[in-house]
Specification:
Elements (H helix, E strand, L loop, with lengths): L17 H4 L12 H8 L9 H5 L6 H9 L3 H9 L5 H7 L6 H4 L13 H14 L3 H5 L9 E5 L3 H12 L3 E5 L8 H4 L8 H13 L3 E3 L10 H6 L2 E6 L5 E2 L12 E3 H9 L17 E5 L3 H12 L4 E6 L10 H9 L3 E4 L1 E8 L5 E14 L5 E5 L5 E4 L2 E4 L3 E2 L2 H4 L26 E3 L2 H4 L4 H22 L1
Parallel strand pairs: 1-2, 1-4, 2-3, 4-16, 6-14, 7-8, 7-14, 8-9
Antiparallel strand pairs: 5-15, 10-11, 11-12, 11-13
Helix pairs in contact: 2-8, 4-5, 4-8, 5-8, 6-8, 10-19, 14-15
Bound molecules: flavin-adenine dinucleotide and iron/sulfur cluster.
């Protein structure tokens, strides 16, 4: 048993300094060096109960990969992770580890002791793998495609994982993606400074090398229906279309110029490269920006607005710091960059000038009452506490809903009352040859849970095809 070292902070991750990074879109956290990774990995106690593994939605064999890392067998470590997680460079960067694997780490459960930085170590070995590709392994990764064709609708983490697993099993897989780029939220939502797009592209290239075909600019349900695809010979379907329809606050003034959804704002910047003057798809740059919400989407929108040149960026959140749903690291980075947090505040009205441009927001103070159905204390308004903040841009990041483009056009597909797809324990929908997973089933969740669903669905699609065709 290694000597136990109780330290209050995980081995720090090197970063671009806040003053520099708030002016560029390059990745904020630059990653552990080998020395730092070994130092952190040696803290792992190799516990027999493997509690951290149970905290990971796809059960990455964490103590085992860390042991290989300590032995400097980086190829072994990455292969060990890939037994369960095919996108480790992405998950190491964006998983909310503090509520998953790291929450259950024995070291983290001891007072004044930090958990092992599992995500950072996962990123270290995944980045090592990208820098040291193994051509032999990559070429034997997939089998020859069979004649059984499977259509994957949506190229986000759920769809990509499902497609990769099915290609591995030898199926002929085509991804149909509505946008001109595959990756879902990984490319249009999460900004470059948190997840460089070349990492996502590498994973997509791996899928293509495995024979997965990708058809972009194909909005299924509009351009083609599932019936059209059946006629083209597809024998089974996976629907992984996410939950990308933005929700707007129901307050006066949302129609004003300068008010937009985080979804539109981030898509324009990430996918349409609005930050680059070379591109002809601009987005309005605010000077005093208010972002409403407290999740990862709000953090991403606020930090993006800052990088586009805003002088003051405020996150207005109706609960307190304790309830903030964003990844803790993103919150800390946002604070370091000078984003203002206005906790226990809620917008009540957006106010515009005579030309119809937003020029201020009225907010009201909130206090926390009894817990609601989510278990969090319900925010209640403090009567008469309204005041005005001057702004010239307002970004709504209060959540998203199921987009009905496909679901409303697919006969026989049973949805729940919020428009999400109903599935059984095998992720099979009410249509026998159609499976579904990710945000379109659960509502907005996480990258790793979408990937987990893609993996389970692939296994069940294969079972279905073996017994029904
Ligand atoms: P998506 O990623 O939404 O992918 C769905 C894909 O389907 C999209 O490419 C879409 O264009 C396509 N599509 C939609 N309709 C059609 C159609 N009719 N035909 C064809 N294609 C279609 N999670 C984390 O774990 N960590 C984070 O740090 C994090 N940050 C986030 C930041 C932002 C800004 C956002 C928006 C989300 C974030 N999330 C984060 C949540 C996470 O990204 C999602 O839970 C996850 O991407 C869901 O995966 P998915 O495959 O179900 O859907
Ligand atoms: Fe933790 Fe995510 Fe890696 Fe699982 S995949 S071990 S939850 S970082």
């Amino acid at each position: 048993m290694p000597k136990v070292e109780f330290i209050k902070e995980k081995t720090p991750m090197p970063h671009q300094p806040a003053e520099e990074r708030k002016k560029n879109f390059s990745e904020v956290a630059t990653g552990y060096t080998e020395e730092l990774a070994l130092k952190e990995a040696k803290r792992c106690l190799q516990c027999k109960n493997r509690a951290c593994v149970k905290g990971c939605p796809v059960e990455v064999p964490i103590p085992e990969f860390i042991k290989l890392l300590v032995e400097k067998d980086y190829r072994g470590a990455v292969n060990k992770i890939k037994e369960k997680n095919v996108l480790p460079a992405i998950c190491g960067r964006v998983c909310p580890q503090e509520t998953q694997c790291e929450k259950f780490c024995t070291l983290g459960r001891i007072k004044d002791s930090a958990p092992v930085a599992i995500g950072r170590l996962e990123r270290f070995v995944a980045d090592w793998d990208i820098q040291n590709p193994n051509p032999v392994e990559e070429s034997v990764y997939c089998e020859d495609p069979s004649i059984k064709k499977v259509a994957v609708i949506g190229g986000g983490p759920a769809g990509l994982t499902c497609a990769g697993e099915l290609a591995n099993l030898g199926y002929d897989v085509t991804i149909f993606e509505a946008f001109h780029k595959t990756g879902g939220v990984l490319v249009y939502g999460i900004p470059e400074f948190r997840l460089p797009k070349k990492i996502v592209q590498k994973e997509i290239d791996n899928l293509k090398a495995c024979g997965v075909k990708i058809e972009t600019n194909k909005v299924i349900g509009q351009i083609l229906t599932l019936d059209d695809l059946r006629e083209q010979g597809f024998k089974a379907f996976f629907i992984g279309v996410g939950a990308g329809l933005p929700i707007f606050l129901n307050i006066p003034g949302t129609e004003l110029n300068g008010v937009l959804s985080a979804n539109e704002f981030l898509t324009r910047v990430n996918l349409m490269k609005a930050y680059d003057p070379e591109y002809d798809t601009p987005v309005e740059h605010g000077t005093n920006v208010a972002v409403f919400g407290g999740g990862n989407v709000a953090m991403d929108a606020a930090r993006t607005a800052l990088r586009l040149g805003a002088e003051r960026v405020m996150i207005i959140y109706r609960r307190s710091e304790k309830e903030l749903p964003a990844r803790h690291e993103e919150y800390e980075h946002a604070l370091e960059e000078g984003i203002e947090f206005h906790f226990l505040r809620n917008p009540t009205k957006l106010i515009g000038d005579e030309d119809g441009f937003v020029n201020s927001v009225e907010v009201i103070k909130m206090e926390l009452g009894e817990p609601d159905e989510s278990g969090r204390r319900r925010p209640v308004e403090v009567p008469g506490s309204e005041y005005i903040i001057e702004i010239d841009q307002a970004i709504m990041a209060i959540g998203a809903r199921a987009n009905p483009l496909l679901t409303s056009q697919t006969k026989g597909l049973v949805l729940n009352k919020w428009g999400y797809i109903e599935v059984n324990e095998n992720l099979q929908t009410s249509i026998a040859d159609t499976f579904s997973g990710g945000d379109i089933v659960t509502g907005a969740a996480t990258v790793i849970s979408a990937m987990g669903a893609g993996k389970i669905a692939a296994k069940n699609i294969a079972n279905y095809l073996e017994t029904n065709n």
